[in-house]
Write a structure and sequence with these properties.
By secondary structure, the protein is of the alpha+beta class. Helix content is 18%, strand content 32%.
């Protein structure tokens, strides 16, 4: 009786911890895990020999009271939760696993699925009422949804023609490259007033920390030749560089900034994007898309540049972030900017384009034309596929389906088809493979497959494709120099490309100064690792060792 009474008291204490858990700090959460370890040591016998420490931990977790197990799972990183689920299916659900058919929602749920549903709901993600065809359990499906959404927020590096930015594993930001005259471009190292350098000035041949960002934890960075953006762990956005009068920095005063300055009107941001034509974009945790910058194209002032709304006839720019209310019924989960147009993808798997078309880049079937407001690309909708990512190039675009299929359209040299296509079509080079990432860099493109292999194609000037030459490649070609490297992240532009593996090691090729590979004036034709640098790169949900 005394033992039962003590157990009841322990359960009551665990329930109290569960109720208070949502207000815990990181330090308190770590203490909760330590307490759980001590409880296991007190109440449980030493575990039998197991094949691995992970299996032992999984077995012990099963023996914890449900209330305490819930608290422990709520404080695990999603990737760690995925690895835990991979080692112990008994934590998935109360029904036999794998189930013979897709399970209904009204049924008992295991602790892992319960926690994943809580995270999915907290992030406002859409949950289907029944499992997609070919999926036998809710746990892998929900894990993929939550992980993909979490990874959207993180970009461990960004590139522009003359420089690169990096976010290391501790959240510190670094930069390297050249500061170009006439553009008021600053790499965040200047401490004085804004100025235009008299000549092309070297900031650093290797990645150098930004003193102005010390003490801030950065998770993502986005840059273009004229301006830069950084996203903090707290969802704050910082901007600096040139283009202030055109609104690219998002500050009402329209001034250039030599060092990062917070955009006060943006909070709880999940995604940032910087593009040409002095444009910027951000998506908050509610899926609302904000854009700001120049409203008209440089080449043709009568054509919209892709802000997603119309400005007053007297206004040339939107100085501060403005909500794209034409997408108010949708939750945006991805955005990509280019010179004359913008792409957005929603949680429902729809792709929208707006701005001005070059070579059919809007995807609506005509080589020219414009769309001030977002317009859904019907050719993609008619495929019946759910799209999860988009990438915009100067004259082309790519879209990625949930099944890992790639669709391309626009200019023939970079859309993956080797022929001009004003309407999206599946890229045949990836038929039979699953792709987990697509990207563009002006006049070049890239894709990472489920096997973590990198493919590039397009304009090969400056050896930015990594094929050992400066040739043009109209269709996807695997980067042989990265054979054996598990690619986790890619950023590319017309002068150089950065690649991170799953351990955060960065490989670079192209213009070596901008890529952080040294101080000589030469191009690097094959992927070369940057020494002493590790970035925040994570595995894609498609390649976690799960099932």
């Amino acid at each position: 009786m005394a033992a039962a009474s003590r157990l009841a008291a322990l359960r009551a204490a665990a329930m109290h911890c569960h109720i208070a858990a949502w207000s815990f700090t990181d330090e308190q959460a770590a203490e909760v895990l330590a307490v759980a370890d001590r409880l296991r040591a007190l109440f449980l016998p030493p575990p039998a020999a197991a094949s691995s420490a992970v299996q032992q931990s999984s077995t012990l977790l099963q023996l914890l009271p449900t209330e305490l197990l819930t608290v422990v799972l709520s404080h695990l990183d999603t990737c760690d939760l995925a690895r835990l689920a991979a080692t112990c299916r008994l934590l998935w659900c109360d029904a036999p696993t794998p189930p013979p058919r897709p399970m209904a929602l009204l049924r008992p749920m295991g602790p892992v699925e319960t926690e994943l549903r809580r995270r999915t709901a907290a992030r406002g993600l859409r949950i289907v009422s029944s499992l997609p065809k070919g999926t036998l359990s809710w746990v892998p499906y929900l894990l993929k949804r939550v992980l993909r959404d979490a990874l959207r927020r993180e970009a461990p590096f960004a590139v522009a023609d003359a420089f690169s930015f990096f976010v290391d594993k501790k959240g510190h930001m670094l930069s390297c490259g050249l500061q170009t005259p006439g553009e008021k471009l600053h790499l965040g190292h200047d401490s004085g007033a804004d100025h235009v350098p008299e000549k092309r000035r070297r900031i650093g041949g290797s990645p150098t920390p930004l003193p102005s960002m010390q003490g801030r934890r950065i998770v993502s960075v986005a840059v273009f030749d004229s301006h830069c953006l950084a996203l903090s762990r707290e969802g704050e956005v910082y901007s600096w560089g040139g283009g202030g009068p055109f609104g690219s920095l998002g500050h009402a005063d329209g001034r250039a900034r030599a060092v990062p300055s917070r955009i006060d009107s943006l909070t709880r941001i999940e995604i940032i994007a910087a593009g040409p034509n002095f444009k910027s974009a951000a998506v908050d945790e509610y899926g609302r898309l904000f854009t700001w910058g120049q409203a008209e194209c440089d080449e043709d002032e009568s054509m919209p540049s892709g802000l997603g709304y119309a400005l007053d006839s007297q206004a040339e720019s939107q100085l501060t972030p403005k909500w794209v209310d034409a997408l108010s019924e949708d939750r945006v989960v991805g955005v990509s900017l280019e010179y004359s147009f913008t792409l957005a993808v929603t949680d429902a798997g729809a792709v929208f384009s707006f701005g001005s078309s070059k070579a059919g880049a809007l995807g609506h079937g005509s080589l020219k034309g414009s769309e001030v407001l977002p317009r859904r690309i019907e050719a993609l909708a008619q495929t019946g596929r759910q799209f999860v990512a988009v990438a915009a190039g100067i004259t082309h675009a790519l879209a990625l389906t949930e099944e890992g299929e790639v669709y391309g359209w626009g200019s023939k040299h970079v859309n993956g088809h080797g022929r001009s296509e004003p309407t999206p079509h599946q890229v045949s080079a990836f038929v039979g493979q699953r792709v987990k990432h697509v990207g563009t860099g002006g006049l070049c493109s890239c894709a990472v497959t489920e096997k973590c292999e990198l493919y590039t194609w397009g304009d090969g000037d400056f050896s930015s494709l990594g094929h050992g030459d400066c040739e043009k490649h109209d269709t996807p070609k695997r980067v042989e120099g990265l054979s054996g490297v598990q690619v986790a992240a890619v950023a590319m532009c017309e002068t150089h490309t950065l690649v991170a593996d799953e351990d955060g090691v960065v490989w670079a090729f192209g213009d070596e100064m901008a890529a952080g590979l040294g101080v000589t004036d030469a191009d690097i034709f094959n992927p070369t690792p940057i020494p002493t640098l590790r970035v925040r790169a994570r595995k894609s949900p498609d390649v976690l060792p799960l099932f």
